Amino acid sequence: MNRTRLLTLMAVFVAIGTLGSQFLWFPAGIAKAYPVQHAVNVMAAVMLGPGPAVGIAFMIGLLRNLLGIGSLLAFPGGMIGAFLAGYLYKKFRRDGWAAFGEVVGTGILASLFSVPFAKLLMGSSFGALFFMPSFLVSSISGAAIGWLIVGRVKQAAQVPRMSTK
Fold this sequence. Notes:
Elements: H1 3-23, E1 26-28, E2 31-33, H2 35-48, H3 50-66, H4 74-92, H5 95-122, H6 131-158
């Protein structure tokens, strides 16, 4: 994939992740679940790999924070999940591994990392031990959506096109 196409696709994923969080969210424990971020992580991991997926997650977190529609927890949650999704997809070449990596990366590892992260950067880790259920609900729902979309896109790419002649 050439550099222009890569950057364009990354920008589209950033736009989808940033704007999509405003349209699709639900309460999940002490936090809000934003499954679009996790779906984008899975799609980017499969289509682009771990590096671009982490870059996309970082940009979504940055934009959401600059716009006042996200929290600092978007950084570890998005980036750790995106990396693990991309890494596992690259290693096993199965869409399900990308979804699994997103859930483990965000739902478990990032939620654990968020406790000291919240204490250090947000001044308080009150309630931080309750991040895991919220992170898991959000990442499981988003990873499932991303997995379904990736499967449909791959399926559509394999369907022979009818001639218009």
